[in-house]
Amino acid sequence: MANEYRSIVEYFGEHEGYRCGYCGSKDTNYSHGMWAHRMTTTDYQDLIDRGWRRSGKYCYKPKMDVICCPQYAIRLDILNVKLTTSQKKVLKKVHKFLNDNIRPHGKSGMEDENGQRGGMLIEEKPGQESNENVADTMPATISDHYMRVDMDAIRKEDKTNDSMSVPSSTVSVANNEAKVKEPKSQVKGADPNKPPCKKAKLIRMERKQRKLQARGISLDQMEKRASKGNEEKTLEQFFSEIKKDAHNKLEVKIISSSPRSKEFTDTMQQSYELYKKYQQAMHNDPPDKCTQKQWIRFLVDSPIKTELQYDGPSIGYGSFHEQFWLNGCLICVGVLDILPYCISSKYLYYDPDFEFMSLGTYSALREIALTRKLHNEVPDIKYYCMGFYVHSCPKMKYKGQFKPSFLLCPQAYTWHPLEKCVPKLDVNKYSKFNETDADRDGEVDLKNILVLYDHQAMTYGYYSAMTGQADQAEVSEYAKLTGRHCAHRMLLYRSSN
Questions:
Q1: How far, in Å, CA of 122 to CA of 280, rounded?
Q2: CA 21 to each of CA 123, 126, 128, 293, 379: distance values in angstroms, whole numbers, following the listed order
Q3: C-alpha closest to that of 297 among 270, 345, 335, 327
């Protein structure tokens, strides 16, 4: 049995309650855990589809039925992405800054969403306190080129009224003088000697029409342009608006972090300094909580090794850092796992001096675009996994703004549209979304589970017969949580002591 291509894990059966980073409770957060000495991308993909996440090499699965703030795995269908108005505004704002060096004034309305991504996508930040402690003790709206004109309404108005005069009913008031309102008894309706009032929107349309006609553009041409303007821009079209000679040059690089590539090693200190600055400014972490050792264990070390396959993506599967360089300075880093069916976003940190760029939202849209690009190479890559969705935590609901999103049923392990899950979560914070199907992958024959004992791989049936170990309950729990496919592929470490 070839061990070098199999995942090797240690399962931890006993768990005490620890602090919840969502509600702040001291001991109401519970999870199952295991240490991954090595993990294939296929196994980690299957674990994600059963509600597992990783923090460094430590993998954990919240105990959904007892935890104070249930955490539901959430993923985005990247083939049918529908950008929201706020997301389009972020794209336009950032690209305006890149192209013309125009910085927005004041908050854009996206800062709250932006500020949460770095702290939540890892479960990351809330789970950092808890899971790292465990790990320590265990090995503008759409940019229209032309106004969308209601041509039928304009033609109708043109036939009934050629006048463009608009009666003015506004009276300027100075020096705090009071406005005198005409008694209602004297109001006798519209003045028949004046043209009918028009809505401001229609007036703007007519003004736009006259300008286009003055440029020699016919009504038919206007209709075609209006129709073109109604087409939704794709994410790729938005990113293509960045000029080649942009005032500010943004360069995005994907580099391997496990194993560490030369590019990663060369920029390692810069990346860590950025992380430290982010943690201290955005999360008020003291210096002893954001050391380089902690950063490496948390965001660099990974049990997932790069896999280059002939039918896989050109950059391979594995763990990566997506670096954002602005005019030669590192301003943002996203930590990603590229897996057989998705990109899993693990964490984000950025320079607080560039918070005006809404880097939380912007980098997420970049990662979605990367997932779509990889889909062109590997059609099986269809999803962007955003970690956990916590309906009971208002600050976590922003993940639902990425549409269409799906939540994982905590019992049947099937994916369901977010909008159909929300009504249930409004009633009960812990809910199952699949009322009919059972967890068939949780039915595992213990005898066929693979274990690693005394440096040798064997079935659990052979191991128990040879050693007489009474650990059947723990192994059964492990198999049910990881699922039949993983339990029959991964090697569960058994101590020889």
A1: 17
A2: 9, 4, 8, 22, 37
A3: 335
Task: Show contacts of 269-278: CB within 8 Å, 24+ apart.
Answer: 270/330, 271/321, 271/323, 271/330, 271/333, 274/330, 274/331, 274/332, 274/333, 274/349, 274/350, 274/351, 275/299, 275/333, 275/349, 277/351, 277/352, 278/118, 278/349, 278/350, 278/351, 278/352
Query: Which distant-in-sequence residues (6+ apart) come within 8 Å of 223 by Cβ?
Result: 149, 151
pLDDT in tens, 254-300: 999 999 999 999 999 999 999 999 999 999 999 999 999 999 999 99
Please, where are the H alpha helices in 173-218?
200-214
Both structure tokens of 380: 């099986």
Q: Is the C-alpha dihedral spanning 325, 330, 333, 339 positive or negative? A: positive
Provide the β-strand partners of residue 325: 251, 330
**C-alpha radius of gyration, the chain, whole number:** 29
Relative to beta strand 342-350, strand 383-389 is parallel
Residue 311 CA: distances (Å) to CA of 3, 46, 378: 23, 19, 7
Whole-number Å distance between alpha carbons of 173 and 231:
44
Please give the average per-residue pLDDT across 7-13, as a whole number. 93
To the nearest 10 degrees (0 to 180), the angle between helices 111-120 and 268-282 is 120
- Tell me the pLDDT tens digit for each residue of 122-174: 333 333 333 344 334 444 332 333 333 343 443 444 444 444 443 443 433 34
- What is the distance of C-alpha 436 from the center of its chain? 29
DSSP E strand stretches across 296-395: 318-326, 329-338, 342-350, 383-389
Euclidean distance between CA atoms 11 and 14, whole angstroms = 9
Which structure tokens are listed for 292? 């380089």
- The DSSP code for 317 is B
Counting Cβ atoms within 10 Å, is residue 101 exposed (0-12), middle (13-18) or buried (19+)? exposed
Say if residue 303 is preceded by a cis peptide, omega within 30 of 0: no
Q: 264 - beta bridge partners? A: none
Q: Is the pTM of this model over 0.90?
A: no
